[in-house]
Amino acid sequence: MIDAVSLRGESPNGTVPPGEANNAMSSLALDAYFGATHAVRSVTLDFPTNEVTAVIGPSGCGKSTFLRCLNRMHETVPRARVEGTVMFHGQDIYGPDVDPIALRRHVGMVFQRPTPFPTMSIRDNVAAGLRAQPSERLSSRQVDEVVERALRQAALWDEVKDRLKTSATGISGGQQQRLCIARALATAPHVLLLDEPTAALDPISAQKVEELVYELRKVMTVIIVTHNMQQAARVSDRTVFMLMGEMVETAPTRRMFTTPSDPRTEAYITGRFG
Amino acid sequence: MSTAAMSGSAPRVRGLARRRGVSIVMITLTCIAAALAVVPLVVILGYLLKQGAGALSLDFFTHMPVPVGEPHGGMANAILGTLLLIGLASVVGLPVGIGAGLYMAENRGTGLANLVRFLADVLNGLPSIVMGIFAWQFLVRPFGHFSALAGGAAIGAMMIPLVSRTTEEMVRTVPQSLREAALALGYPRWRTSLQIVLRTALGGIVTGVLVAVARVAGETAPLLFTALGNNFWSLNLSKPIAALPLQIFSYAISPYDEWHAQAWAGALVLIVLVLVISILARYVTRSRHGGGGD
Amino acid sequence: MPTMSFAPAGSAVPRQGPPVESPSIEGSVTADRIYRLSLLVFALCVPLLMLLIFVEVGAAAWPALHLFGLSFLTSSAWDPVKGQFGAAPAIVGTLLTSVIALTLATPLALGSAIFLSEFSPPWLRQPLSFLVDLLAAVPSVVYGLWAIFVMVPILRTGVMPFLRDTLHLGATPFFSGPAYGNSVLAAGMILAIMVLPYIAAVSREVLMAVPRAQREAALALGATRWEMIAGAVIPYARTGIFGGVILGLGRALGETMAVTMVIGNRHELSASLFAPGYSMASLIANEFSEATTDLHVSALMAIGFVLLIITLIVNGVARWMVSRMGAEVRA
Questions:
Q1: Considering only CB atoms, which chain B residues are within 8 Å of C41?
Q2: What is the domain extent for residue C146?
């Protein structure tokens, strides 16, 4: 197992230190299936702490599935299956003692479409993650503080501070998405997973979310799946290219987009397919 | 197939006037049918108002039934009994109905979910008198006495199919993305289910519950051999209890005009109760659509 | 493009975020298990209830079924004192009242469904559908009350003499004999009103589910609006409509209170619809509380059991037909 951690066969850069001291997460020979479909094929990757890693690739390449394996959301789909290891703070999240619910509080996730809870106010939406943790009983004032911090972090505070008690479905789509990011941030996760977070947004809202992602890496590790290469180039430190379930190449973003080492990567980023 | 059936008559242009005439006559007939379909409701409600309102008084709501010839008879005990029976039925029917509905929605496609759905539909078509003799055999005969509990359980069982099917359908309308969002926040499945999914679907489920309540509120046959009826004030759940439908039935088939008048008054109260619940159910559904959702 | 902050070996970016202590991701899933288990228990209540009804009613019916065998269904003897029980009159009465009900209700229900789905102005559709649906919400006992005091007197003094004497239908065995009022015909008529909303609701749903292309294809062939409906829409929807009628049949077969109040409650097989009779449900409702011998109770249970089986089959067929149309119907 330890050998496997340092086995970074496909990375030609060799700049990543072995071990996981600097990695918030690492996947080792990760396979994911939907029934008989082999969606993710033996992906081994490190996600360095406080960096933004973008996962790009054409539709159906398994990038979203891979992302969903990192907080064990994949297994919530019927007939879905995962094999392999994901290390998070020295533990295999697929280990026998790991509670996926506990894990998900530390590995937040935001989806393609905004998913505010329609029955809750803006404030309650942000606080929803806190309430999911039965061990912590926060006072109302503490909750208010966390909500304000999360909303400020998500750059939404000024827009909604006067209507925290109103329905979360009453704000615009872009605001809803930032609300969902705030909701994920409220529990202070170590890693934030973003699954095409701007795909359903207008360009201006998308830009706001991108700026946000760029800021967030100061305090956490971000993994963002996107089909938008410009977005990957703008926000990420490292980029991973996936194709047909396999991880083709991973490199610092600038190098990936200037001198990719794999011909398939080059074909993709120059727009010859996908 | 259907277009082929058309080809025999459609292309002929001769006789167009006649065909148009037939069309107009038939359309008029459907219009008359629609009007006639509403007539019974109007007529019945009209009679209830005419006959019932005359017999209604404050006494009706505050007094006990009295023998023929005595003034100031009422159905206070039957009104109370019906409310009590509805409460008992809800205690039996709602948890099972909502629980089974959630099960069906969250385990879609599994054999058991399909079986439960099929049997719920079958139960929905079960004659209420069969539920009555079943409840008697199961809950009255072994204990040797009629009881409010047996009556409440019998009509509660009748609520299960309606409530479970509505719950299932309403829970299905909650987008999967909302479930995933809750799970990704670290909600355990049970809290996702109860606090996010069920709460989002609540408007529709309340409608289903109200429809079920409206339906069992007027049920008589399952109560004939379980709650039995009672001419006295009773809150004892292990004793027979009066119910509005039972009282209407026994007064209606009695030979006394005074009791007939009481039956009309009781029917008016019952129908108002049922219609108010039905209309409320509709209102809840409508306001839910305004309340937004994903 | 942001500057690359990719850290070379050994120089980790200092974390400014939440405390770096290793997060605990261990826990238990006990609560989830309990929750799933309780949902399963609630779900199992449904098959259990069905099974209990079958077993309890079946077991209670067994002595009578065992004693009389098939003749229970064919015999018309019903003598609690001598211990003779045959369900034939009740079965025939049930079928007869149901057939009358469907004959009267189906054209009206179908006509109103066609009007509501095809011709009704949009503003009228919702309220009119609601009013027809409300018919289903009126309790059976209220129908019975209205039937006793309003419908039956009209039948006795108006409709029955008119059918028998004015139309000379009294010459046939079906409309002969004295007009008591309380009769198989009265039960069938009140049942017609009661099943109307079920048939109308299902037909409406099914007609609305007919694809636009079907209608347009017919209109494009030069059909009038009625020809479009008769030639394209109804054939497409007929399985579902038939399912709705069968569903109405299921309701009519098991309907108790209103029938009990006007059918006349007499154990006789008569060809005349003017004669009083019995339906299975009304027989149970009427005699159950007065049954003194165990055999009498068992015979009534056996009638309930037969009714249970018949309605199960009828409802099963109806559900299957309607679901084939892809229309979700909760009636």
A1: 99
A2: 90-293
Q: Which chains touch A (3 or more CB pairs under 8 A)?
A: B, C
Residue C245 lies in a domain: yes
Domain for residue C60, yes or no?
A: no
User: Where exactly are the structural domains of chain A?
Assistant: 2-269
Q: Domain spanning B62-290: which superfamily?
A: MetI-like (1.10.3720.10)
- What is the rounded CA–CA span in Å between residue B267 and residue C145? 8
What's chain A's length in residues?
274
Q: Locate tokens 């305090």: which residue? A: A219
C146-193 pLDDT, tens digit per residue, is 999 999 999 999 888 888 888 888 888 888 888 888 999 999 999 999
ipTM for the predicted complex comes to 0.88
Q: What are the start-end ranges of the H helices in chain B? A: 2-7, 16-47, 53-55, 58-62, 76-106, 111-124, 128-135, 148-172, 176-184, 189-191, 199-200, 202-217, 221-224, 244-252, 257-290
HSE-up (13 A, CA, CB side) for residue C71: 8
Could you give the angle at which helices B257-290 and C122-135 cross, rounded to 10 degrees?
140
Distance CA C76, CA C72 (A): 8
CATH number where C101 lies: 1.10.3720.10
- The reply to whether the predicted model has a pTM over 0.95 is no
**Domain ranges for chain B:** 13-55, 62-290
Q: Which of B6, B119, B194 faces C221 most closely, judged by CB atoms?
A: B6
How close B117 comes to chain A (CA, Å)? Answer: 20
B217 CA to centre of own chain? 7
CATH of domain A2-269: 3.40.50.300
Residue C9 lies in a domain: no
How many domains are contained in chain C? 1
Bridge partners (DSSP) of residue A247 are: A242
